[in-house]
Amino acid sequence: MNKYFYLLILASITLFAxxxxxxxxxxxxxxxxxxxTKHSDSTAGKDSYDYPPGSVKxxxxxxxxxxxxxxxxGCWAALREGNVTITFSTDSTFEFYDYNDKMKKKELLTGxxxxxxxxxxxxxxxxxxxRFSFKQDPQANNEYRITNVSGYYFIxxxx
Length: 159
Description:
Blueprint: H1 2-20, H2 30-33, E1 37-41, E2 46-50, H3 58-63, H4 68-72, E3 74-78, E4 85-88, E5 93-100, E6 105-116, E7 119-124, E8 130-137, E9 143-147, E10 153-156
Antiparallel strand pairs: 1-2, 3-4, 3-10, 4-5, 5-6, 6-7, 7-8, 8-9, 9-10
């Protein structure tokens, strides 16, 4: 009788322990790792998501952001008097429609450009190079801006 009693207790413990145990998450399991938790932010009127740790690798996360070079490609307009624009192409060339104060007219400047860190270097075909700052502006939703000491302030636009 004692054997049956101990066997019954052992079976009961095992049965209750199995009901209480939850399945363990296996690292890399897409069913578990990729399920985000949704939060509502009433102050900003937006939903945000928290991803479980390990569900997004750092390399994958940063690969989803455009590089500074890709962000630069396109047309930029200066916020100053006159219609000053600059267009950057994927072949590292640019067309800069600037206003020449000495000649009192618009002129087209061309050349190649280089981006290294937050420095944008314009290598003109007919004059010395010019340096600009190419950074994300925290006051403008982290959109890139092109500025320099001469007072240029370019924003991405539909030229």
